[in-house]
Known about the structure:
Strand content: under 5%
Number of domains: 1
Oligomer: single chain
Shape: globular
Low-confidence stretches: none
Structural class: mainly alpha
Distance between the termini: 28 Å
Mean pLDDT: 90
Largest sheet: none
Number of helices: 12
Amino acid sequence: xxxxxxxxxxxxxxxxxxxxxxxxxxxxxxxxxxxxxxxxxxxxxxxxxxxxxxxxxxxxxxxxxxxxxxxxxxxxxxxxxxxxxxxxxxxxxxxxxxxxxxxxxxxxxxxxxxxxxxxxxxxxxxxxxxxxxxxxxxxxxxxxxxxxxxxxxxxxxxxxxxxxxxxxxxxxxxxxxxxxxxxxxxxxxxxxxxxxxxxxxxxxxxxxxxxxxxxxxxxxxxxxxxxxxxxxxxxxxxxxxxxxxxxxxxxxxxxxxxxxxxxxxxxxxxxxxxxxxx
Length: 278
């Protein structure tokens, strides 16, 4: 792998690490990045790379929340261990809708909706929704401020919103956080629960892509995957910490504005380049 190719893969990992957790759509950024800095790989490998690079991002969640998510910790008493198992139960319930529909229709959604116009539209639409929701939230009390207050029914509803992320440009974290806040879940709990639900969903998606592509990589392909995953992991640690600190003091309005601006830029960029590029 050349130095230039290494730098491009590094940039992909950095962008993935930032955009996977902030509600601004990793797909929206990737579709621009793939056009501006195309990697010297086959289309089939690139399709797999988009998903598998997320493994690095997921490992950051596992590291940062290991204590909270570990039901076997010797530092937890019996009640705390039960609470942790209940949390995992809610995570699994929340993953059921996306898990079923993702297996059945993920490739179909990518085939029919992975284009700049759909991504631009979803960026703008969800950006507007975030702004409107936060405007409403200024006069609203959140009923769920702790995970112990989160019900299995709440988890299932949030999981249904996660299904919306099958449409490229929606943002998995954006859809789940938006849905969680709509039903009265506070920003910090909504964000953390979104992170937790990503673990089985994204591990599952990566596993399916690996099975589909196979495990016969060239040295260059293995280096591309490793570099992308490691950079995504390191940047994800910083991005997650930033988001959790940010939402303790501020709301998601700024992310809504960013989505709208990015959506307009994506639309204009590909309109200028022409339909073939989109």
